[in-house]
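Possible race condition, two jobs.
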Amino acid sequence: MPHLYRRSSRISAFLFLLFLPLALMAAGDSSAEPQKILMIGNSLTYTWSIPSILERFAAERNHPLKVTMHIAGGKDLLWHSTNTTKPSDLTALQDIAKGGYDLVIIQEYSNMLMKPEGRENFDRMLPEYLKAVSGASMKPMLYMAHPTRKDVDQAGIQPIIDAYSQKADEFKIPCAPAALAFVMSNEKLPHLALMDIQTDRKYAQNKVGTHQSPFGSYLAACTLYAAIFKESPVGLAFRGAFDAKTEIPIDEADAKAAQEIAWQVWQDYSAKHPAP
């Protein structure tokens, strides 16, 4: 009997992975724009308030949008699956199961994706999240965040790019490629700080940290906006990033450059990794 049970469990797991892409496509059949989003992540989500920037963008274009976060600094999807956060006092999987969202944006801890054990955890945990999202009749999206390091060259962060792209292709789900937008910005606009530790560049604030700068968060929000609404962020009037106490303005020319990079990166990426 134990052998039969193990065999049955393996067959069930295989069938789940086999039919999950079809289930996700069915859950995402609606063409309605998302109005309520859950973002699962860490400090790369909340630093300089990427969700709030997104809401400002959406309001400007008359897209009703409310972004809720399930976040904790330095945590991965495994941690979020078993630990609660404020204000919901639910684990991420419980928050998804509770319902009430149109779109769930899933971010793995980028630093862990640079390590084999981190990629193994991502392989193991992502299907659990997608199963929960599908069961709650929501749409999933991956958020390819950058690592917490000074350099954002493509060769250095290729493991992150590969991990997200492989999963986007495997499960046929969209991915917001913010890390690739950082790579392009680093090449085209080397005078603008993407990370606060780039102290010789414009917009660096923290001076000692390894999180994104206000400009980095603005660029990430532009990339997310393009992926969520499949609409160019070019021309958005809001130009800023903020925390609880401070708002940092982004100069008009720099904001326009970020918008253009985000749209170009999203167009190129979605053409190579199409999803419903």
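Job #2 (started ~2 s after job #1):
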Amino acid sequence: MKLDIPQLVADQHTFFASGISKPVCQRIKQLKRLKSALLQHEPQILDALHADLHKPSFEGYTSELLLVIKEINYMLKNIHCFATSHRVKTPWFYKPASSYIRSEPHGVVLIIAPWNYPLQLSLLPLIGALAAGNCAIIKPSEHAPHTARIITKIINNIFDPAYIAIVQGGIEETQILLQQKFDYIFFTGSTRVGKIIMQAATEHLTPLTLELGGKCPSIVHKDAQLDCAAKRIAWGKFLNAGQSCVAPDYVLVHNSQKQALIHKIQQYITQFFSNRPEASRDYARIIDERHFDRLTQLLTQGNIIIGGIHNRTDLYIAPTLLDNVSLDDMLMQEEIFGPILPIITYETLDEALEIISDKPSPITTYVFTQNKAIQKKCIKTVHAGSICINDTILQAATSYLPFGGVGMSGFGRYHGKASFDTFSYKKTLFNKSCWFDHNLRYPPYGRLQKFIQKFLSWWNSK
């Protein structure tokens, strides 16, 4: 039987209006239920991730399930503080009065998740939505069907669909969802689809968060610790077969270090995945044939230094390094989102920074250098959602740092407190006593006007 999406959204609006989702004790209870269900279904979750992406069990656990559990723990520890009204200063001439700021849930939210981290990127936003007191509908990606099914099973077993629900399906179901009135939309995916989501949101003036990605550069300066840089770039790039929005998309290396860096990255590819990555249990696969075909077309640009081997039947593309890539190639115009890493040299840091600034702002930028002045210059100059010094990926895997893009890589933040803030709005409270009421603000103003203007002018100049 086909799901009645308009009725589901209407039921959620009714549920939210009842106030059941708002008490903090209710939010805590539901977060604990979600955590318990996830731990109970751990083997099935890891099997589903492997079935969809050939994701190694360790990667599935550390980059997906563990991050979700840690986020729930963080919310449980801090939710009382986040949900408490905070008193702020009241101007003395308004007194006797008091002023407060209170976090309130938006209402019914829509979460549209991608396929590359299908568990994490479905449930991390949900945790923020739950903690803030919302109802939510999750639209998992149809390209990761095994994970979508296990998420649906978990959610349906513990939540009333009028509170938290799953809508499976493809483009048709997404279009129907976007025609409904939501109070907030959270989307993770490509810039192209993000534009469609944003256009649909404007129909109802719905606020939204877009997590999009982009071409994340890695600068390897001449004073970088090359062994460290190579190891961490290789790990960050080929994690999940390069299908991460924060994966290093291309490397800008000082020309004096190019050959040494390539040699060390090759060493770590072999160390991580052996001489035959296609046989490694620790190397993922491309999600489907469409993305595989797109990536293999990119392999025709530049010269293959390492890798390049691919097998469409197995959706396998070897960890690949490319040389002699032109900045005008398609490879450098769109996010690669796969295990292909162009190596580009530069002579001066300004040259590298100019290459980055000529492209849309990325969600993150990686800088490998021991020079504090170089680090500060990159932090000051590069327009990106985040800067990570001497490492990759980890800045996106903590509840203590807000995560998100800027410009074409998206807007809005989540993770930890940023998730709570994203899925709530700030209600201001002003409470004025009636026991004293001076007449200076009431007409007729008469001769008091000049006195008040002079007094306020003097006060504002202090």
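The first helix runs from residue 5 to 17.
Logs attached separately.
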